[in-house]
Amino acid sequence: MLNDKKTIFSGIQPSGNLTIGNYLGSLKNWVTLQDEYNSLFCIVDLHAITVRQIPADLRKRTLEVLALYMACGLDPEKSIIFVQSHVPAHAELSWVLGCYTMFGELSRMTQFKDKSEKNSQNVNAGLFTYPVLMAADILLYQADLVPVGEDQKQHLEITRDIAERFNGVYGDTFTIPEPFIRKVGGKIMSISEPTKKMSKSDSGDGSVCILDDRDTIIRKFKRAVTDSDCEIKFSEGKDGINNLIMIYSAFSGKTTDEIEAEFMGNGYGNFKIAVGECCADALGKIKDKYNLYISDKAQLEAVMRTGSDKASYLARKTLSKVYRKVGFVTKP
Ligand code: TRP
Fold first, then answer.
1. What superfamily does domain 7-186+297-326 belong to in CATH?
2. Ligand 1 within 6 A of 132 CB?
3. Burial class (CB in 10 A: 0-12, 13-18, 19+), 86
4. Which of 22, 175, 180, 263 is 20 to 30 A from residue 269's alpha carbon, by CA?
5. Which residues are marked as active site?
6. Which of 31, 64, 45 is nearest to 147 (CA)?
7. 45 lines ligand 1 (CB under 6 A)
8. pTM (2 decimals)?
9. pLDDT, tens digit, for every residue of 126-164?
10. What is the mean pLDDT of residues 27-46?
11. pLDDT digits (tens, 9 = 90+) for 261-279
12. Hey, what CATH class is 214-291 in?
């Protein structure tokens, strides 16, 4: 990338239906970032298999995520959009970095502890070394900034530690990446359990999926959990209402103050319907575009091919440098 813009890298696992949490927390922001930065947006299928996947579903979801990336506004002319398994350098660098990552530091990862509790019958080595692969994703492209949610901050810290350790031994090799965590829309909570993050692996009414149909969206919002008083006001302890205000604000562009004024004296019922309709309007537009992209196999393939060619070129440069530094003989 021959310009002086900074580089950003981020990715989403194709492990469930993307939710408005993914949209408001990640995709919507990425769309604006792609104008300012050299951007790489990855569909991290290698990470997805740390939890058992049904092969046909994984294959289908990978293409769905790609079509959704584009429907939300990621532009393959501006950003490098690609599938992780199409660029073998991710797995290759991950092996090398694994030899510079300590068992003890991986054992401290809170996501590993959470996921191994939830998947106690499949606590596999991939789940344990997941952060090393994530470090490889980021470091391969010398990314300066990594837009992620709060929950990934610890993985970014270990990425920095691994990069610093490697640079310390072999001299400057990797750019040390910074997390890029936005405040607004940063964390959308489940609408049925507003103290938990909205998750794409939750199939219940708490998660609103980008591709849900209008009636489903409105029905889910009507059932949203709130609290026992009846004031539409952003305040401490009103997790459900705060979350709905955040969602409404993100979709409508209105501020919290404007929303509180708009719904002064209204009950929760009206507010929930308004949030649902506003969300359904916005998602409806995305869905129309999605339908066009998902039905055009040739275009999806062309985007994946171009994306992985561009990504591979950049990744190879870093990987050759690493191989040379650790002492591997150059392939004649
Ligand atoms: N672990 C991230 C998540 O679950 C996904 C991810 C994989 C990622 N590799 C990445 C995010 C590199 C940012 C950069 O949300």
1. HUPs (3.40.50.620)
2. no
3. middle
4. 22
5. 115, 197, 200
6. 31
7. no
8. 0.94
9. 999 999 999 999 999 999 999 998 889 999 999 999 999
10. 96
11. 999 999 999 999 999 999 9
12. mainly alpha
